[in-house]
Amino acid sequence: MTEKKRVFSGIQPTGNIHIGNYIGAGRNYVRLQEEYETIYCVVDLHAMTVPYDPKDLREGKAIMARMLLAMGIDPERSLLYHQSDVPQHAELSWILGTLAGMGQLERMTQYKEKSDKAGQQFGLFAYPVLMAADILIHRAHAVPVGDDQTQHLELTRDLAERFNHRFGDLFPVPEAIIPEVGARVTSLTDPTSKMSKSDPSPKSRVHLTDTPDEIASKIRSAVTDAGSEVVYDREAKPGISNLLEIFSAFDGRSIEELAAEYRDAGYGIFKNAVAEAVIDGLRPVQEAYASLTDEEVHRVMETSAEKAREMAAGTMRLVREAVGLT
Ligand code: ATP
Ligand code: LTN
């Protein structure tokens, strides 16, 4: 029997998860369980790199864990745990930090964007190194993420190669798994910028916990483009194109098919159809979310963390040996 390849991904417990996170990353977490050995992590240490309130972090962790299970992460097939429960992530991060170049870290787009708001602190600067450690501690082969994480994945690959070259082949060089449709869902109020948890306007995004009325109202008021035809053209029609991507992600039909069907329907009818697809697509997730108990969620997180610690300790034994610590 050939061994299954391993997938790892992380998601921050900051703010309320939105359909961009779901389409860009979360849905792939669920799908990949069919084919890969899958490990998912609520990256609470990463969430501390921007100003936050400890109470919100505690709540955010519980909500995110519950939401990931509601989406369909199956504890029989996947590990799902909180990053800080497995101390080897931080330990490996230190070692990888000795291989990371300052210049490369200074060029990280996310660092440049977030340090404007969060201040220039070391945690935010070192963020991508910790992300590399998350992936490499499990010697993962593939990492499902949205488009915005490509640069961080590139750094992870560089660090893996640098480590292997210097200390001997230990890490697979991981590939990003980026969806063809929905890798960069954009804001409903500004279709040229990314849909983001940190956007001050809640109307800019649909949360997975929004009621059907809220979803319909946000999609109906989404900023659209001049003209009246429903066509897919990211440059000329960013608003309509974004809605077509969201529609296709939830409905399952291709963008071409949907654009052909709604071409002359008018924006109003088109938006109602998009809203309906999102409401229907989120219903099972919302039902599962409501029916999970805190105890169930807690149990999964604890059991998985225990297994993840064992696996991570195995990698650290090899790393310590390779770098000369033992
Ligand atoms: P923020 O937008 O506040 O920076 P975030 O939502 O990007 O936060 P995470 O929660 O860590 O940060 O993202 C989880 C996953 O969702 C990542 O794989 C990321 O690439 C993906 N993702 C985030 N926003 C989008 C988006 N608008 N479209 C597609 N994928 C996205
Ligand atoms: N940086 C990612 C979250 C993240 C991650 C990871 C993703 C932290 N560690 C490991 C994949 C693999 C983000 O901001 N979305």
Tell me what the structure shows.
With 326 residues, this protein is mainly α. It folds into 2 domains: 6-178 and 294-323, HUPs (Rossmann fold, 3-Layer(aba) Sandwich); 202-289, Orthogonal Bundle (Tyrosyl-Transfer RNA Synthetase), CATH 1.10.240.10. It is built from 13 helices and 5 strands. The chain has helices spanning 19-32, 44-47, 54-71, 88-97, 102-106, 109-118, 122-137, 150-167, 212-220, 238-251, 255-262, 267-291, 294-323; strands at residues 6-11, 37-42, 78-82, 142-144, 175-177. The strands form 2 sheets. The chain has a 3-stranded parallel β-sheet. α3 (54-71) crosses α12 (267-291), α4 (88-97) packs parallel to α13 (294-323) and α7 (122-137) crosses α8 (150-167). The longest helix has 30 residues, at 294-323. It is globular, with a radius of gyration of 20 Å. The two termini are 34 Å apart. The model has no long low-confidence stretch (mean pLDDT 96). Adenosine-5'-triphosphate (ATP) binds at residues 11-12, 20-21, 23-25, 145-146, 148-149, 182-185, 194-198.
